[in-house]
Amino acid sequence: MRTVRLSIMGFGAVGQGVARAILQKKDYLSTMDIEPIVVGISDRGGACVEAGGVDLEAAIERKQKTGSVAASDLTALDVIKDIDHDIMVDATPTNIEDGEPGYTYMLEAFRHGRHVVTSNKGPLALKYSMLCDEADKNGVKFRFEATVGGAMPILNLAQDALAGNSVMSIEGILNGTCNYILSRMTEEGLSYKHVLGEAQELGIAETDPSYDVEGIDTACKLVILANSIFGMDVTYDDVDITGITKITPESLSLAGAEGMVIKLIGEVRDGNDGIIRVAPKLVPKNHPLAVGGTLNVALLRTDMAGPICVKGKGAGSIETASAILSDIIAICKNRC
Known about the structure:
Helix content: 40-55%
Order of helices and strands: EHHEEHHEHEHEHHEHHHHEHEEEEH
Mean pLDDT: 95
CATH class of the largest domain: Alpha Beta
Oligomer: single chain
Structural class: alpha/beta
Number of domains: 2
Number of helices: 14
Radius of gyration: 20 Å
């Protein structure tokens, strides 16, 4: 059995989801000769460290009772630098201003010979090339499936399952909050403000929903797709962004009368007419992109396989953790 030592930076919904996924899949992972041991967990309140493996159930319970996983005076950087482990999982929140603290955590992990798996979009949307260069320089792996589609495997699909194909374009719905709001407005003829309040009450939208409804979250995901799949060298500032805040029930009704729905579509296209943009777009009701609720969907157009469509849950604790776990397994299979 190959022991893989992990740290988890950030122990909110996603970080706890990773811990639960490791507990839930212990027997499955053992059939793959993988024994994951979490030796350190950090959140804003501090850290807990155990060389023989943190008690994950106790850590989750402590987080829920006290608001922090802290059981020592160590900081996140102490864990990354000084605690021996193979893979650092960064589940800290996205910060599009400067990518911190995830950006610093990733750099330190690379420089100390740790592989990195992340769900944090901010550092990749701002400094993708620098992070990849640093990982390469230190001979470690950098995987980030969870940054784009949550449980929906866009990166692995394009890079592994469709290896040998040239992906010419990707377009899709990459934000479940926006899709929920537009779906409810369409179905019920409700105002944006009303449905946003409903989404916030249900926990689908954040108290400050700007990252979602202004298209920022989708734009970050497009940057990651553009750089990792198309080999572009772009950042968040290169994306043309229009959100959903000005869409009215009347415009949705007019679209419906023409057999169309309005969706917030992110699009990346390679070539001389290269495009990277987020905007509301008319979509035929019977089109593969016309999914409802909180679902995400992506349509990849390839030269040999033709159009390939994938849809699924783009957010959620255990759903996002499933993508992180798949990246951890991929690193282990390559003998981390």
